[in-house]
Amino acid sequence: EGASPNGRVIALLDDNIKTYWHASWKVASDYPHWFIVDMGENITISSIELTRRQDNDKGQKGQRFYTCSDKDAVNKANPDSWKWVDQGAYTFDITKNTPQTYRLTSNPVARYIKVYFGTEYKGSGAYAMLSEINVIWSRTINLND
């Protein structure tokens, strides 16, 4: 929110743990919170790393990951209509400043990653927040192209 780098989703991708994404706080919003990362093309995802907002233990205690391939995101303007594949629920250590790695055992092929914070993951604060997301992936080769 606003002009600073903090609060906006782009802060998750800037390689700077001092900036952070934060669910809306100007207009309070209840859980669930989520964001979607567009990888630009289908990739094979092996794991996702999340780093908490530094020195702040009031955030979420876990999350679910969902993935969606390019072909399953038919109406690009409406992510609610996409065919999301649940990759599982994971706990999040709100006291750890270093990256936390989550292995996606099915190695999904996807373009979009949705990180979802349901009410069951609510921490002591009302908001979800992170400083970084990193995706460990490999390029998917389609031999039919």
CATH architecture: Sandwich
Radius of gyration: 15 Å
CATH topology: Jelly Rolls
| The CATH H-level homologous superfamily | Galactose-binding domain-like
Taking the sheet with the most strands, its summary is: 6 strands, antiparallel
Task: Report the principal-axis shape.
Answer: globular
Low-confidence stretches: none
Broad CATH class: Mainly Beta
Whole-Å distance between the termini? Answer: 41 Å
Whole-number total of structural domains: 1
N to C succession of SSEs: EEEEEEEE
Q: In total, how many beta strands?
A: 8
How many helices in DSSP terms?
Answer: 0
Helix content: under 10%
Domain F5/8 type C: 1-138
Organism: uncultured Arthrobacter sp
InterPro entries: FA58C, Galactose-bd-like_sf
Pfam family, one: F5_F8_type_C
Task: Write a brief structural summary.
With 145 residues, the chain is mainly beta.
Write the layout of secondary structure elements.
Layout (H helix, E strand, L loop, with lengths): L20 E2 L10 E19 L10 E7 L16 E7 L8 E4 L5 E9 L11 E2 L1 E8 L6
Antiparallel strand pairs: 1-7, 2-5, 2-6, 2-8, 3-4, 3-6
Question: Your description of this structure?
Answer:
- The protein has 145 residues and is mainly beta.
- It has one domain (9-139): Jelly Rolls (Sandwich).
- It has no helices and eight strands.
- The strands form two sheets. Strands 2, 3, 4, 5, 6 and 8 form a six-stranded antiparallel sheet that branches. The protein has a two-stranded antiparallel ribbon with strand order 1-7.
- The protein is globular, with a radius of gyration of 15 Å.
- This is F5_F8_type_C.
- It comes from uncultured Arthrobacter sp.
- InterPro entries: FA58C (IPR000421), Galactose-bd-like_sf (IPR008979).
